[in-house]
């Protein structure tokens, strides 16, 4: 029997899975393998929400493989050592893996290649499993990546895409390969109470249901905080439970302005991935240094704590931060305005905010989180690096009736209409009736401080 190994990482699905297809085409038996590697946790993955969602995804992948006569093999340990052990046990001649963009993923690929080649086994790294258009496929003249989104999008949108692959009918797994127990959700502490259910089946269901119910209106409604009309597919995309390429193809097939706007957002995901692939250091270092003199010390620490806990005194900021704590997910408009509030109005280093997001976000992703933070903080290549979002105007515009704020900031639930965005305007006993903090800082003061710090004035 010829055997191939499929090493799963952030591609936890059976539909549209080029490594699985290639392995099945090239061998009679396949070992679908997932390694729970403590090094991945040490690199910052081990946030409770993502571990819980991962457990769902692995259980669902195992179910899907079992339906096809196979199973998922899970091993706890060092990735290279475990892959090598499986290769030696089965005599596998090939290992298939989806290509990654982080420095961690790149180093893992290199190490695997070296070790496996020494054992006479070939490593195949497949592009276009996690992304729609792989990093490096479209580049501007004279550079290895696009630094600006619009020209990238133009080129990206014209790229020919492959047809999504069907899920295999059968997967034969050698019987004598041992598996550790699948990790479960139970025993993971501090999971957000409103965390979504993970897995390919749920992701595919959501994609289909969302395209039908909300796809057409996406362009008009994607910023509507209370309407919550975006796809919420980000965690499924992050874990690869849904193929981004298939999502694009299905949206395009549907057509219309809503579908195109949704596809454009998926392009943002690839955009950040190609930046990170070319500049792995941008996960930490400013992509474009602005020589910031970020606030530090006890006062800045206290402001950061208030921001994390959703008690800045700006209702729409607090609502979004509380949504993050409760669901492990936040609406994109919320991410934009809370990030602007921290990095600009409070003038606290964007890395502090990005770390908090990564601690909680179920879709927390090095490329998309760090680079979106940089873009909002103005340390990325963005058209308006010093633009500051005004949380009151943002609230009035994207939550005109105040329903989003009332949903998350229960202390203010008794305030009707847009007045909920400015509780400090109330006076006397009316104000005293609301147990809600005063704003941490006046917006004009925050703006002046940011300008002084960045020397933009
Ligand atoms: C400060 C900040 C931090 C962020 N951190 C992350 C993160 O860690 N992980 C993450 O997946 N997204 C991140 N985003 C991007 C975006 O907010 C989320 O992808 C989106 O809110 C997820 O909701 P949705 O699936 O309903 O999106 P939809 O509006 O339905 O969009 C569809 C898909 O497009 C992609 N997408 C949408 N907007 C963006 C964007 N700005 N950048 C990259 N991809 C995008 C996502 O994969 C999303 O699932 C961040 C944005 C900001 C401003």
From TrEMBL:
Keyword Lyase set for record: yes
Which cofactor does this sequence's record say it needs?
A: FAD
Q: Which domain of life is it from?
A: Bacteria
Under InterPro entries, the record lists:
Crypto/Photolyase_FAD-like_sf, Crypto/Photolyase_N_sf, Cryptochr/Photolyase_FAD-bd, Cryptochrome/DNA_photolyase_1, DNA_photolyase_1_CS_C, DNA_photolyase_N, Rossmann-like_a/b/a_fold
State the SUPFAM superfamilies in the record. Cryptochrome/photolyase FAD-binding domain, Cryptochrome/photolyase, N-terminal domain
Q: Check the record and name the Gene3D superfamilies matching this protein.
A: 1.25.40.80, DNA Cyclobutane Dipyrimidine Photolyase, subunit A, domain 3, HUPs
Identify the enzyme class: lyase
Gene Ontology MF terms: deoxyribodipyrimidine photo-lyase activity
Q: What is its EC number?
A: 4.1.99.3
The UniProt keywords, alphabetically, are: Chromophore, FAD, Flavoprotein, Lyase
Domain (Photolyase/cryptochrome alpha/beta): give its ranges.
2-131
Q: Which family does it belong to?
A: Belongs to the DNA photolyase family.
Q: Fetch the PANTHER family from UniProt.
A: CRYPTOCHROME, CRYPTOCHROME CIRCADIAN CLOCK 5 ISOFORM X1
**Could you tell me what this protein is called?**
Deoxyribodipyrimidine photo-lyase
Q: Which taxonomic lineage is given here?
A: Bacteria, Bacillati, Actinomycetota, Actinomycetes, Kitasatosporales
